[in-house]
Amino acid sequence: MLDFLKNVFSSGPATDYKELLEAGAIIVDVRSAGEFKQGHIKGSINIPLDQIGTKIAFLQGKNVPVITVCRSGNRSGAAAGVLKNNGIEVYNGGAWDSLNAQI
Known about the structure:
This protein is of the alpha/beta class and 103 residues long. It has a single domain (26-102), classed as Rhodanese-like domain (Oxidized Rhodanese, domain 1, 3-Layer(aba) Sandwich), CATH 3.40.250.10. It is built from 6 helices and 4 strands. The protein has helices at residues 2-9, 17-22, 33-37, 56-62, 74-85, 96-102, and strands at residues 26-29, 45-46, 66-70, 90-95. A 4-stranded parallel beta sheet has the order 2-1-3-4. Strand 3, helix 5 (74-85) and strand 4 (90-95) form a beta-alpha-beta unit. The longest helix is centred in the last third of the chain and has 12 residues, at 74-85. 25% of the residues are buried.
C-alpha cells in the first residue's frame, strides 16, 4: 500500500541538476533585477518572470536545457510552464539558494 501511495504522489525521478549543467544547461533566474543583485547562482542569467515571454527566441537559440529558479519555486514554476509550452526543455530548479547548495 505504501508503494502504491508513493507512486501516485511521486513527482517522478529526481532531477540531477549537476548532470544537466555539465551537459550545458543554463540557469535562468526569474526574480526581479533587484533580487538578483542581492544574490544569485554564479553564471545564471536574470530574466524576470514578466519578461520571460519576450526571451523565448533567445532561449530557443541557446539549444540547451534551461533550469529556472526564483526565491521559492513559484515564479520559476510559472516560467517553466511558459518555456515548456514553447518547446524548450526546461526544469524547475525551485529556490535559487537551495539549488545553489546542491550544485
